[in-house]
Amino acid sequence: MDQVRKLVEYGHDDKFCASFFGITERTWNNWKKGHPDFFQALKDWKATADEHVERALFEKARGYSHPEDKIFGNGLVIETVKHYPPDTTAAIFWLKNRQVERWRDKQEVDHTTKGDKLSSPQIVSYDAETRQLIEKTLNRKKQK
């Protein structure tokens, strides 16, 4: 089980895991169905991997620092702090997924009803002369 946990926590999917152990994906899936504890463990390990990636994305979006040793040619080692500035792309990705209503690319605006519900359609009848005028207008628009 330890090998499976490591593979899954490193982000490998079911297909890769099945191949790693020399079995088909169908056998892997049947094993999950027949062993609920195993299936639950897989889900937990996948959640752990997702949390690591989520945390890394969050850190990249905000910017972060970490200790780093600078090693010089003469063997001198100096402890420093490496800083990574906030990443705009990571921030946008984070916001688009976490605050969909505020950050999605497509904003939906209702220009017709001002938020009110549309009333049921009205049936309108026109006299023959008005119908001919409407048809001529529509035909002209189609020809353009």
Description of the structure:
With 144 residues, the chain is mainly α. It has a domain of 83 residues. It is built from seven helices and two strands. The protein has a two-stranded antiparallel ribbon with strand order 1-2. The radius of gyration is 30 Å and the shape is elongated. The mean pLDDT is 87.
Q: In terms of per-residue confidence, which ranges show pLDDT below 50 for 5 or more consecutive residues?
A: none
Ends: how far apart? 70 Å
Alpha plus pi helix count: 7
Strand content: 5-15%
What is the C-alpha radius of gyration, as a whole number of Å?
Answer: 30 Å
| Order of SSEs | HHHHEEHHH
Average pLDDT figure: 87
Structural class by secondary-structure content: mainly alpha
Task: Count the E strands.
Answer: 2
Q: Could you describe the largest sheet, including whether it forms a barrel? A: 2 strands, antiparallel
Fraction of residues in helix:
55-70%
